[in-house]
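Example (one chain per record):
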Amino acid sequence: MSADGERPARPGDTPPARPSDIARAALEAARVASAARPRPTRRRIAGPRRTWTGARPGDDDPQPLGRLVDSLVQNQDWTEHTKVGAVFGRWSALVGPDIAAHCTPQTLTHGELLVVAESTAWATQLRLLAPTILGKLRASVGGDVVTRLRVVGPTAPSWKKGPRAVRGARGPRDTYG
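Predicted structure:
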């Protein structure tokens, strides 16, 4: 022991290290290891080169929405579906507002368009106008979408009242006694 009451210093004893000293030593070791490693040569990854389109719009330029929708319809092969939708969506413009006010298209299956008229008189009139209406549809939508026009009148009213009905009843004749 020394005179001041502490242990004598030995050659292997070092004061305890502070955390900041440990961090500095680790950073210095990493720098030395990094400097010792050879630097890799910089190589360009092979890929498509950027080509400048010039004055014309390219594929990556902003496009009008209509052109993008048209290309989507063609790529997904939705042309037939859009033609069928055009028959129902543009019915008034295709047949005229006066005819469209008195009839509505219901279904289109296998080229046959079912049209329901508001009265039997209009159903008869539409049957007479069927070749003209088919010509208008072929000219605007295409010849293979609607090949036949079936016109029906309004359905008869139902005489069933309430949740139950008698099977085999004679129908409306039984109503009037």
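Caption: The first strand starts at residue 103 and ends at 109.
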